[in-house]
Amino acid sequence: MHIEGLIPHRPPFRFVDEVLHVGADAGDFALHLGDVDARAPTGMLSPLLLLEALTQAAAAFRGQQRSGQEQSGYLVEIVDARFQGGLPVGHTAILSIRETHVLGTLVRFTGYASAGDVRLVAATFTVAAKE
Amino acid sequence: MDELKHRLKQVIINELHLEGVTAESIVDSAPLFGTGLGLDSLDALQLAVAVEEHFGVRIGDETEGKKAFASIDALAAHITAKKGAGAAATA
């Protein structure tokens, strides 16, 4: 499934490039930064944008769960976020997210962005799915 | 049941960061949402997470949540019933 069929975000504000694996309640996605990449003009994608990448991965997860239909929603709450560092150009971050709770249109996710063995950002957040 | 209700009130106060609210000030039969403690939908989701973490009971969907979160009385009854059903299933 092409990522742009799952989420409404478009370059240069799309931070999920590839679906790696989607299971019943969790998924892994990839963000590939080129050696020169408009998303990281300083040479480093900031940790805050990696958090945005995790929320986009959550939207892509729900899109994949719903027969590949594009999903849109709103980030409404960041319960917890821990920042270790950004992603340098020329590197790939793996975005791992897990859906933990659903109540009505609100969906709670926990996840992390990692590069190799380094966990760059970890977060727990809530998305309001647009009906 | 009274001990469970007191624990529930403490969990609600701590998990939802309710300032100026004590367990004694929460009326067992009063609505938790809207006119009661004034909780909103994000609080409901956090409460569902907290109930699972502290009491091992999962709130399955919004309909179940609305019923269980009607008041402290309702939530205590819901947890007791779910725990009882779980114990009966494993007996």
Number of strands of chain B: 0
- CATH uppermost class of chain B: Mainly Alpha
Beta strands of chain A, count: 8
Which class of chain A in CATH terms? Alpha Beta
CATH superfamily of chain B: ACP-like
Strand order of the largest sheet of chain A: 1-2-6-7-8-4
Q: State the secondary-structure class of chain A.
A: mainly beta
Q: What ranges of chain B have pLDDT less than 50 throughout 5 or more consecutive residues? A: none
Which parts of chain A are unreliable, with pLDDT below 50 for 5 consecutive residues or more? none
Proportion of β residues of chain B?
Answer: under 5%
Indicate the radius of gyration of chain B in whole angstroms. Answer: 13 Å
CATH architectural designation of chain B:
Orthogonal Bundle
* Count of domain modules of chain A: 1
How many domain units of chain B?
Answer: 1
Order of helices and strands of chain B: HHHH
User: Termini distance of chain A?
Assistant: 22 Å
Task: Report the C-alpha radius of gyration of chain A, rounded.
Answer: 14 Å
What value does the average pLDDT of chain B take? 90
Q: How would you explain this protein's 3D organization?
A:
The complex is a heterodimer of chains A (131) and B (91). Chain A is mainly β. Chain A has one domain (3-129): Roll (Thiol Ester Dehydrase, Chain A), CATH 3.10.129. Chain A is built from 1 helix and 8 strands. Chain A has a 6-stranded antiparallel sheet with strand order 1-2-6-7-8-4, covered by helices on one side. In chain A, a hairpin with a 2-residue loop joins strand 6 and strand 7. The mean pLDDT of chain A is 93. Chain B has 91 residues and is mostly helical. Chain B has one domain (2-90): Non-ribosomal Peptide Synthetase Peptidyl Carrier Protein, Chain A (Orthogonal Bundle). Chain B contains 4 helices and no strands. In chain B, helix 1 (2-15) crosses helix 2 (41-55) and helix 1 (2-15) crosses helix 4. The radius of gyration of chain B is 13 Å and the shape is globular. The relative contact order of chain B is 0.16. The model of chain B has no long low-confidence stretch (mean pLDDT 90).
